[in-house]
Amino acid sequence: MLKHINTVAYCKTVLLGLLILSASIFSPAVYAQDANAISTDPAVIQQGEALFKANCKVCHAVNEQVVGPALAKVYERQNMDWIIAFVRNSQKVIQSGDPYAVELYNKFNKTEMTAFDFSDDEIKSIIAYVKQETENPTVAAPVATATDGATPAEGSASAGMSSEYFYIILVVLFVVLVLILIVLGLIVSVLTKFLNQQGNLDEADKEIVNSKTDLGAFMKSKAFVGFAIFIFVTLVAKTAVDGLFSVGIQQGYAPKQPIAFSHQLHAGQLEIDCNYCHTGVRISKSANIPSANICMNCHSIVKTGPQYGEVEIAKIYKAVETNTPIEWVRIHNLPDLAYFNHAQHVEVGNVECQTCHGEIQTMEVVQQHALLTMGWCIDCHRKTDVNTADNGYYDKLVELHNESSKSPMKVVNIGGLECSKCHY
Ligand code: HEC
Ligand code: HEC
Ligand code: HEC
Ligand code: HEC
Ligand code: HEC
Ligand code: HEC
């Protein structure tokens, strides 16, 4: 009899162990190890980086969509065999009817990816590099005057990550605890039955054994209910706080535009200067979006493009003929209460467009790079030196500043944190 009980208890323990193990499979760490064993050898990653930069960079970035999708976590979306087949000949995979490939192809407006005659190991090395960049994105080289001011993108990316982990850990914890409770409850009820059948217990022992410890009672117990409420409230609070903090913040916003205008083509490949189209950027508060007339300077001659043929350029002609402005969707948008001046930053401050807008010249579709929150403005004003070179206006200020301080004059020192400078 006792032997049977032991066996039952033993089975239960094993069962519990298995359950915990299966729960832990949800954890991302275990997943990553499973996925086709991607190398973390620095030499392999370096080879992959070189191949990526020479062959893929024109169309791909790891953490950003360019011509093709962001390759971050591609090794989680597809297995290595699929990736190898796709890189060797994407058209073959698409024509085979692979639903994922077909959907992706359509999503990217049927852009054909170049075929690469690479070995398995070469492609695996590229993916090893992609994985390393997914997990530890290299910080974009700080641009000119802007010291290491504006790389808010990374901060928020890691914030998004940690919140993902937070949920996974909570859910796993909860599931494991409930399972433990159920198993413990079962063991107790089996033991109770067994001891009662033994019949040789005195009254006091019987009372202990038969006291209400069954599962139903436990589920109703204060401790359990309290714990469940705690988990629930934490989840709700976390969701609410996340929601509040993201109100009005549109980092990464990349709406579809009425004409498939590409900065990657015009500002990147053709190297047209930003000022050519954004005529206000050095002389006024706003940068301006070019009118169709500026497009026509070239497109009265250039009637067809490499990707869309005549279709997209025809829309420019239609706008000019019917005299209706092209309705570009605005991407960056501060609320009315804030004042921001381009000329002050670009012309006077000598801050590069890319510091605030990201690598626009590589974007097929423009997306919002920075947070554009008050904290973002202030943070940069704290860190960035004022560009005082060749600017007589600052001579006196610099003199005054140097009397009281040894560090270079920052924007904060000229009043860059005063409310009235940014608020009407
Ligand atoms: C000419 C542009 C171009 C080049 C060069 C290019 N790709 Fe692509 N890639 C694309 C496009 C566009 C897609 C989306 C699918 C489609 O339209 O066929 C894509 C999709 C992919 C995908 C699938 C992504 C996903 O989210 O599932 C992988 C993997 C990939 N490319 C890897 C590479 C690698 C590795 C290289 C370099 C050896 C490379 N690509 C070079 C344009 C390109
Ligand atoms: C040939 C003209 C042209 C050139 C050159 C050009 N742009 Fe643009 N830009 C546009 C047009 C048209 C739009 C509106 C459509 C869009 O968002 O893609 C735009 C939109 C933008 C936006 C988003 C505006 C918004 O709605 O918030 C930014 C930021 C931007 N450009 C920055 C740049 C930078 C930086 C450069 C230089 C590296 C540059 N542009 C070069 C034509 C141009
Ligand atoms: C300084 C010259 C110049 C200006 C200004 C210019 N473009 Fe272009 N654009 C070109 C050239 C050149 C091509 C074709 C490139 C090629 O065929 O490789 C092109 C191609 C295009 C294409 C076709 C892309 C494709 O892949 O099929 C579109 C759409 C386009 N431009 C829209 C615009 C719009 C909208 C504006 C105004 C906001 C504009 N362009 C201003 C030179 C210009
Ligand atoms: C210090 C940060 C910063 C720099 C540097 C900067 N921008 Fe902007 N840009 C912004 C902000 C903030 C907005 C949103 C402005 C608003 O909503 O009033 C914006 C908006 C824009 C827009 C949308 C239209 C407009 O005027 O609001 C364009 C186009 C643009 N920027 C182009 C450029 C170009 C081109 C350069 C480089 C010559 C540049 N920006 C440099 C921060 C910057
Ligand atoms: C990449 C760094 C950077 C970011 C981001 C930035 N600024 Fe600035 N800002 C500067 C620099 C540099 C100056 C000094 C320019 C000069 O010499 O007048 C400046 C000056 C100013 C001034 C004039 C201050 C004075 O005392 O004369 C105002 C107003 C201002 N910024 C508003 C903003 C607002 C609003 C934002 C956010 C939407 C913002 N800035 C984001 C770098 C930045
Ligand atoms: C360098 C520029 C800058 C300075 C200095 C600045 N602000 Fe702001 N502030 C902004 C911008 C930009 C926004 C809009 C942020 C957004 O949409 O998230 C903003 C938003 C706000 C808001 C609206 C609430 C919100 O978060 O959207 C309040 C209130 C505010 N600021 C108060 C102040 C006060 C008080 C000071 C002085 C102690 C100050 N600001 C100084 C740029 C600035």
Automatic annotation (TrEMBL):
<keyword id="KW-0479">Metal-binding</keyword>
<protein>
    <submittedName>
        <fullName>Cytochrome c3 family protein</fullName>
    </submittedName>
</protein>
<keyword id="KW-0349">Heme</keyword>
<feature type="signal peptide">
    <location>
        <begin position="1"/>
        <end position="32"/>
    </location>
</feature>
<dbReference type="Pfam" id="PF00034">
    <property type="entry name" value="Cytochrom_C"/>
</dbReference>
<keyword id="KW-0408">Iron</keyword>
<feature type="domain" description="Cytochrome c">
    <location>
        <begin position="43"/>
        <end position="134"/>
    </location>
</feature>
<keyword id="KW-0472">Membrane</keyword>
<feature type="transmembrane region" description="Helical">
    <location>
        <begin position="223"/>
        <end position="241"/>
    </location>
</feature>
<dbReference type="InterPro" id="IPR009056">
    <property type="entry name" value="Cyt_c-like_dom"/>
</dbReference>
<keyword id="KW-0732">Signal</keyword>
<feature type="transmembrane region" description="Helical">
    <location>
        <begin position="165"/>
        <end position="191"/>
    </location>
</feature>
<dbReference type="InterPro" id="IPR036280">
    <property type="entry name" value="Multihaem_cyt_sf"/>
</dbReference>
<keyword id="KW-1133">Transmembrane helix</keyword>
<dbReference type="InterPro" id="IPR036909">
    <property type="entry name" value="Cyt_c-like_dom_sf"/>
</dbReference>
<keyword id="KW-0812">Transmembrane</keyword>
